[in-house]
Design goal:
Number of strands: 8
Number of helices: 10
Helix content: 40-55%
Radius of gyration: 17 Å
Order of helices and strands: EEHHHHEHEHEHEHEHEH
Strand order of the largest sheet: 5-4-1-6-7-8
Length: about 220
């Protein structure tokens, strides 16, 4: 019996048009190094400070605390610009799925590789909050735990916030390999969704329990 569904944000529940991918690559490249698309994809879903650090180092740059902090500041600026020009929207069927799950007594949480100061404005644009009593029970950001994905901490923190104690009662969904890895590391049901950049074959090559077209299909899976 699933009591908690924890979902990633960008690419899983929110269509932000791939802007986080572009912003991440650009803020790293502005430090003077080059990025490879596959390297950027590898860090999707992870804590963005950790991702920036790793990508600078992979490009041969010096990831000093000052350089990383400046790049992260630039990342946030780019996201605001991109989101202003092309506002994020809820992915098809996600809001209905969340309401359906909560009507059944299943808690719904969001986990994200964004820090709180990035996640909150994004959620506000969508009109999502944990206070509207019909959509969310918790939101966990990567700067609120010891380490972001693939560490299991955000999922376990969502369990703390929602009062769910048994990992066997938790399902975690996401569109990246880091999402699947975090779910497996947390000991919960790992669900890959095809609303991001990875196709079924790419997701299915890694440990998982289910691959779905989208979060919209979770209620039917649990029926």
């Amino acid at each position: 019996m699933i009591k908690l569904v924890a979902c990633d944000m960008a690419g899983t529940t929110i269509d932000e048009h791939g802007d986080v991918y572009v912003a991440l690559a650009r803020c790293v490249e502005e430090t003077g190094v080059t990025t490879r698309p596959e390297a950027v994809q590898e860090w999707m879903g992870a804590d963005k400070v950790e991702a920036i650090t790793a990508l600078i180092e992979a490009g041969g740059g010096a990831a000093t605390s000052e350089v990383v902090a400046a790049a992260f500041k630039r990342f946030k600026e780019l996201l605001v610009e991109f989101y202003d020009a092309n506002p994020p929207v809820a992915l098809d069927g996600v809001e209905d799925a969340f309401r359906d799950l909560r009507r059944r007594g299943i808690k719904v949480a969001l986990t994200t590789g964004f820090s709180r100061d990035v996640a909150e404005p994004l959620l506000e644009r969508l009109g999502w909050s944990v206070n509207d009593d019909n959509l969310l029970d918790a939101v966990v950001c990567s700067d609120e735990v010891a380490a972001g994905r693939p560490a299991p901490h955000m999922i376990h923190r969502a369990m703390e916030l929602t009062g769910v104690q048994d990992v066997r009662a938790v399902m975690a969904a996401g569109d990246t390999l880091n999402d699947l890895a975090a779910a497996n590391n947390a000991g919960v049901t790992a669900v890959g969704v095809l609303t991001g950049k990875l196709d079924r074959e790419a997701l299915a090559a890694h440990p998982h329990h289910h691959i779905l077209d989208g979060v919209k299909d979770i209620p039917a899976l649990l029926s």
